[in-house]
Amino acid sequence: MVKFIESELLLLKKEIDEMWILVYNQLDRAGEAVLTLDKELAQQVIVRERRVNAFELKIDSDVEDIIALYNPVAIDLRFVLAMLKINSNLERLGDFAEGIARFVLRCKEPALDSDLLKQLRLEDMLKEVCSMLELAKRALNEENLELATGVFAKDNLLDEINANATEILADYINKYPETVHTCLELVSVFRKLERSGDHITNIAEEIVFFIDAKVLKHSGKTDENYPKNS
After folding, report:
1. Which of 130, 186, 208, 210 has its CA 20 to 30 A from that of 112?
2. Structural domain that includes position 182
């Protein structure tokens, strides 16, 4: 039974890795599309969203099967539950990527003002989202608690950029009232990126949940003397 569940957990981890790569590419492409207003690239993101949704359903089903067939306990159960929640957060990130791509398709401007984009620090925000997702993936693959907790600090930059974006866009609208529609739509892009940071932070928390238990297990401690809120 132990060998069977180990192989199933390895397959689950492999599926999560594949889902992760897909979602990372979706966010990366959506970011490039919004910076360049590349409608063809945006359309590719929207089409690939179906794959993200299909992946989520497949992983959910596999988690249900593992729980029903193997009744995992202790660290195995923590791992399965963490993967279930990570899967859900990855799917939401895919939704945000699709939403950003739809902004590109709706945008009637031939290009976004490069000076405005610099002020808004949109490119910095996009890079930080992808960096957080990459760091979280490394944390899981290496089972590294320090890398996982490092994700939390990176989220502060996203909050800061998002908080400043509304005022910058309001000033821009005052100067160029004809851009009001595009600017209001841009607010939603920043909001999606800020929310992406929140979901990646959720992922990091699940990784901490899994790794912490593993560390405790190898140190000889048990859940009985571990804080209840772990």
Report:
1. 130
2. 2-225
CA angle 42/141/4 to nearest 5° reads 110
Q: What is the DSSP string of 108-130?
A: -SSS--HHHHHHHTHHHHHHHHH
Whole-prediction pTM: 0.90
Q: How far apart are CA 151 and CA 43, in angstroms?
A: 30
- Residue 121 — φ and ψ, nearest 5°? 60, 40
CATH number of domain containing 61:
1.20.58.220
Q: What is the total count of domains within the chain?
A: 1
**Which two structure tokens, joined as six digits, stand for 55?**
């992946």
Per-residue DSSP letters for 150-171? HHHHHHHHHHHHHHHHHHHHHH
Distances (CA, A) of 69 to 146, 194, 207: 34, 39, 24
Is residue 230 domain-resident?
no
- On whether residue 95 sits in a domain, the answer given is yes
Residue 65 pLDDT exceeds 50: yes
Whole-angstrom distance, CA of residue 105 vs CA of residue 101: 7
Confirm whether 206 is domain-assigned.
yes
| Residue 132 resides in a domain | yes
Backbone angles phi, psi at 108, to 5 degrees: -95, -5
Q: How far apart are CA 121 and CA 46, in angstroms?
A: 24
Contact call for residues 45 and 30 (beta carbons, < 8 A): yes
Q: What is d(CA 24, CA 36) in angstroms, rounded to the nearest whole number?
A: 19
